[in-house]
Amino acid sequence: MTTLHFAEGLRELVGGVEVVLSDIWGVVHNGLESFPEACEALHTYRSRGGTVILITNAPRPADSVQRQLRKLGVPDETYDAIVSSGDLTRLYVAEHPGRKMFWLGPERDNSIYRGLDAVTAPLEEADYIVCTGLYDDETETAEDYRGMMLKARERKLTLVCANPDIVVERGDRLIYCAGAIAELYRELGGEVIFYGKPHRPIYERAMTLAGERQGHQIDRKKVLAIGDSVRTDLTGAREFGIDCLFVTRGIHAEEFEGLDQLDPNSVMELFGHPPKALMRELKW
């Protein structure tokens, strides 16, 4: 299949769908404000018996993500539960008691080890690295960390990436995320453990929560993922065996200008395997 299906609304795609696994940043908000039509679409779907699990590469626990959503105007009624890459990273830290962690990321992400018996240490003394992002994502890029990553590789430290995203939107700008540093470290020969999309653990956790709410194990044929990233959302859904609705207003917005004019070869080059459907922005 190389043709693209453009849907007018979520209502066209959820017949027989029991669970929606929706990305957050780029789908329900842009980092500065919520998208009311997207929130209403998910709420409407829930009101008709569907379950919505938000899955996010945010390097923070789910309760911290919820507080941010409330500040941005995303109603609690939009979703049933949140699964974050931060939650999965916290499990890794909890399962390695006594080992020294070098934390790389902005102060706002310190909830990643809140309540854990985590021992932090300088890079020279650490047993592993947890990367939640850049210290200053307003001005820095991954290249600013090349020297640090070379030192980490010399010590053969494992880097745990709490946010596999390379970039996200912040308003009308793109800013770098932990995934950019993790990919640099991997290019340098370092060992990286990724938590979050497109990797399986975050989907498995989301399916467990959805099954608890529906009261039975969920058939993947009855699941729809929603996202705005080819690298994380589309790839993750495809590899997990579920359909994906792709939102084009997000990080790939410029690439998708004139998308309806693309020939099959261009579609394959852009997507690999096309999503089930596309929408510029999520609405019912």
TrEMBL record:
Specify the domain of life of the species encoding this protein.
Bacteria
Q: In the UniProt record, does the keyword Hydrolase occur? A: yes
Stored Pfam families: Hydrolase_6 (PF13344), Hydrolase_like (PF13242)
Q: Which GO terms describe its molecular function?
A: hydrolase activity
Keywords of the record = Hydrolase
Q: Can the keyword rRNA-binding be found in this entry's annotation?
A: no
**What is the name attached to this protein's record?**
TIGR01459 family HAD-type hydrolase
